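Hi all, posting the design record for the shared folder.

TITLE: backbone redesign
STEP: 1 of 1
STRUCTURE INPUT:
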């Protein structure tokens, strides 16, 4: 063995060095996955604008701009948010399936790696609970008027809940083949959730008692997990699944997955034309109809269209009117750019090279294809803005109809701009 290899393995002569090496490799891998999804275009057009908008709302919540619809919500409903984040917690122990050859035969090393992973898990859950409570803090302080002692007690209970729920979920995966222990872990998860909600509704003393009880249960389970020497294959599988969750969430839309054969289509192949005759020539309408039907048959189309519409409507309805005047054109602009990307993918892949489409014909079909898809979203957003500005139901038609026409006009103007640019 070479001197470089000997020096490399010499640094892994202790469990702590091995754990740090694996943690560094895991973080590097997660950062690489994040860079595959969030490039500078996504950061410039999505992350930064919505981050600034969220910061503006957060600043307004601290200065009396909480929406009236939030004033009727009880505090227990708001605390479902940390409960959901706690149920999604999983410990990462940095175990590998190949460790059965070495670590399983050396319990001291196995306990050293596992104990460090559990310590990191507890610290990370504290940070995650703190971030969740930082988002909820304006409502807890300004809306419900909770004192800082009550907020601190709720945070301690939430931290303990995150640790206990993560360990119970981990044991559910480890003991999945043993029905009794798996069911006991599931029952413990439900009991911990109910205890947190009861303590949050009962006051500061109950929250402190729940934090002590859940924290003690989490400490016992961590000690049990560090001393657990059997069920190694199940432990490694559960740890691998926990490490893959963030990567699976990031890459679920970026990696092509095999799709099962379609049993039924949303639009029949012999369905009639979707666009009226005044849109353009019959060849333009045929290509635009084909692009629309292709988009509607795509399973990911609705999962992207509906969240954009719901997020835009919620932001327009909850924020002040001047935010809506800025937000609605921005959402329509970003949405038109996304639809333009769908059109380019259709134009590049729908026709074989031997039957490539004329470029002028493709450019003429782009505008009606994007415009007809912009129509519902433009009407919904501008109608919501009209009701907010005018304070009456007829504001939906006063703003919605011109807004829908403006959305279609925006699609035609952008199509003309892209055509000249290309």
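Okay, here is what came back for every position:
SEQUENCE:
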């Amino acid at each position: 063995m070479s001197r470089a290899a000997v020096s490399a393995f010499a640094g892994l002569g202790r469990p702590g060095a091995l754990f740090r090496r694996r943690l560094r490799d895991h973080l590097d891998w997660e950062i690489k996955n994040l860079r595959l999804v969030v490039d500078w275009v996504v950061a410039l057009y999505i992350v930064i604008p919505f981050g600034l908008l969220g910061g503006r709302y957060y600043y307004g919540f601290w200065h009396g701009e909480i929406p009236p619809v939030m004033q009727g919500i009880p505090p227990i409903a708001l605390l479902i948010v940390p409960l959901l984040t706690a149920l999604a917690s999983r410990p990462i122990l940095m175990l590998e399936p190949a460790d059965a050859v070495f670590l399983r035969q050396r319990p001291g090393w196995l306990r050293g790696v596992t104990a460090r992973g559990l310590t990191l898990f507890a610290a990370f859950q504290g940070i995650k609970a703190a971030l969740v409570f930082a988002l909820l803090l304006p409502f807890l302080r300004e809306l419900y008027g909770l004192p800082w002692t009550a907020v601190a007690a709720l945070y301690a209970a939430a931290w303990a809940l995150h640790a206990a729920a993560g360990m119970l979920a981990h044991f559910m995966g480890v003991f999945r083949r043993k029905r009794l222990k798996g069911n006991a872990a599931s029952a413990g998860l439900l009991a911990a959730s109910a205890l947190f909600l009861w303590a949050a509704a009962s006051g500061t003393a109950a929250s402190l008692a729940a934090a002590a009880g859940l924290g003690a249960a989490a400490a016992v389970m961590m000690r049990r997990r560090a001393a657990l020497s059997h069920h190694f294959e199940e432990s490694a599988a559960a740890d691998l699944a926990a490490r893959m969750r963030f990567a699976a969430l990031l890459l679920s839309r970026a990696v092509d997955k095999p799709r099962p054969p379609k049993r039924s289509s949303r639009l029949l192949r012999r369905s009639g034309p979707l666009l009226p005759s005044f849109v353009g020539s019959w060849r333009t309408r045929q290509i635009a109809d084909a692009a629309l039907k292709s988009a509607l048959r795509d399973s990911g189309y609705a999962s992207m269209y509906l969240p954009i519409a719901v997020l835009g409507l919620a932001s327009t309805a909850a924020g002040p009117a001047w935010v809506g005047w800025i937000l609605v054109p921005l959402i329509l602009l970003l949405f038109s750019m996304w639809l333009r990307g769908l059109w380019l993918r259709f134009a590049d892949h729908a026709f074989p090279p031997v039957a490539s489409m004329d470029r002028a014909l493709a450019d003429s079909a782009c505008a009606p294809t994007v415009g007809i898809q912009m129509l519902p979203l433009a009407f919904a957003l501008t109608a919501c803005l009209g009701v907010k500005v005018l304070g009456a139901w007829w504001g939906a038609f006063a703003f919605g109809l011109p807004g829908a026409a403006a959305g279609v006009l925006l699609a035609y103007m952008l199509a003309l701009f892209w055509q000249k640019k290309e």
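COMMENT: The radius of gyration is 27 Å.
Let me know if anyone wants the other runs.
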